[in-house]
Amino acid sequence: MRGIFVIPVVAAVLLVLVSNVATADNGGSSDPTKLLVKMVKGKTLCIKGWECREWSIHCCNLTISEYFQSYQFENLFSKRNSPVGKAVGFWDYFSFITAAAIYEPLGFGTTGGKLMQMKEISAFLGHVGSKTSSEYYGRGALPIYWNYNYGAAGEALKVDLLNHPEYIEQNATLAFQAAIWRWMTPIKKSQPSAHDIFVAKWKPTKNDTLAKRVPGFGATMNILYGDLVCGQGDIDAMNNIVSHYQYYLDLLGVGREEAGPHEVLTCAEQLSFNPISSTPASSS
Ligand SMILES: *[C@@H]1O[C@H](CO)[C@@H](O)[C@H](O)[C@H]1NC(C)=O
Ligand SMILES: *[C@@H]1O[C@H](CO)[C@@H](O)[C@H](O)[C@H]1NC(C)=O
Ligand SMILES: *[C@@H]1O[C@H](CO)[C@@H](O)[C@H](O)[C@H]1NC(C)=O
Q1: H-type helices in the chain, by residue range?
Q2: Which protein residues are within 6 Å of ligand 3, measured from CB?
Q3: Separation of alpha carbons 218 and 227, rounded Å
Q4: Does ligand 2 lie within 6 Å of residue 173's CB atom?
Q5: Which ligand is located closest to the Cα atom of residue 278?
Q6: Do the domain assignments include residue 7?
Q7: What is the pLDDT of residue 18?
Q8: Residue 2 lies in a domain
Q9: Does residue 98 have its Cβ closer than 6 Å to ligand 2?
Q10: Which protein residue has the closest C-alpha to ligand 2 atom 4?
């Protein structure tokens, strides 16, 4: 009995795959959800639309545009008196998705289930959308304290940012690319990226536990800003970033209660991954 049903299903799946292959090279702009699937050594790998274009387990999941739409982006960036809000017209949804597409095969916004995916987008954009007083510059404004390294970022993105940092201010796609690169790339090789921390791909060591560093939004602030915002209790600089994240969770319908308890959400009590003070001093 079963065989009767199995055959049409298999045939249907093959048909879908064949039709996808046939349209894969027409620019892919028509249907962002077209899925290609293959098995490699027992692992299922996918390519999905133009957004998740490298064979990856992550591309089998929802892509960002499938759960985060243009009107939601507008909501996030228009309703607040944030520098990003003021620069509406510079930051736009398409630039974000275009930039994200490079990193979706690596797990940006495509790790875990839909809830984790929406939380990661809220967290990343919470960082981008927050500011403390004057720590912004230009239109493509990102927090300067976001530990930018134009040399390394430019190398990764194949743009000469060292000699032309102004490109970041002129091009929203590039600005988002640089920000997502920072989110996805460890600052030091031995350390986790903000992404790894957030999606709990990072396992805290004994030292981390002693320093109260746990997977979650708080530790992403720790890795990105360290002593500038962490380990000083509930200071404004930290709360400003936290409140953006919470606000975005609410706007996306996830709800701020999903952010977890205070010690996960904030870094108020955490010791910095990279303490400013503990740089080995050349003892005199
Ligand atoms: C894809 O999503 C499922 C849940 O829907 C999750 O269990 C799985 O870990 C995700 N895959 C990747 C590669 O993140
Ligand atoms: C903006 O940057 C992106 C990514 O580097 C690049 O593909 C695009 O051509 C740039 N746009 C302009 C107008 O320079
Ligand atoms: C743990 O912390 C101690 C003291 O700060 C340090 O000497 C040691 O190198 C750390 N271990 C690791 C694995 O980071």
Answers
A1: 2-23, 64-67, 70-78, 83-86, 93-103, 114-129, 150-157, 167-170, 172-184, 194-198, 206-210, 217-225, 236-251, 262-265
A2: 205, 207
A3: 12
A4: yes
A5: 3
A6: no
A7: 36
A8: no
A9: no
A10: 174
Which protein residues are within 6 Å of ligand 1, measured from CB?
57-58, 61, 111-113
CA of 207 to the centre of ligand 3 (A): 6
- The rounded distance, in Å, linking the Cα atoms of 114 and 247 is 18
Token duo for residue 58: 């992550």
The pLDDT of residue 30? 58
> Higher model confidence: residue 131 or residue 64?
64
pLDDT digits (tens, 9 = 90+) for 256-267: 999 999 999 999
Question: Does any domain span residue 277?
Answer: no
pTM greater than the 0.90 cutoff: no
Note down the domain range covering 55: 35-265
In this structure, are residues 217 and 139 in contact, taking their beta carbons and an 8 Å threshold? no
Distance from residue 29's CA to the centre of ligand 2 (Å) = 18
Round to whole Å and give the CA distance between 248 and 269: 24
Can you give the CATH number for the domain in which 111 is found? Answer: 1.10.530.10
CA 33 to ligand 3 centroid distance, Å: 46
> Per-residue pLDDT tens for 210-232?
999 999 999 999 999 899 899 99
- What is the number of structural domains in the chain? 1
SS (H, E, C) 18-77: HHHHHHCCCCCCCCCCCEEEEEECCEEEEEECCCEEEEECHHHCCCHHHHCCHHHHHHHH
Give the Å distance between the CA of 138 and the centre of ligand 1.
Answer: 38
Q: Is the CB of 252 under 6 A from ligand 2?
A: no
Question: According to the model, what pLDDT value does residue 222 have?
Answer: 96
> Do the domain assignments include residue 257?
yes
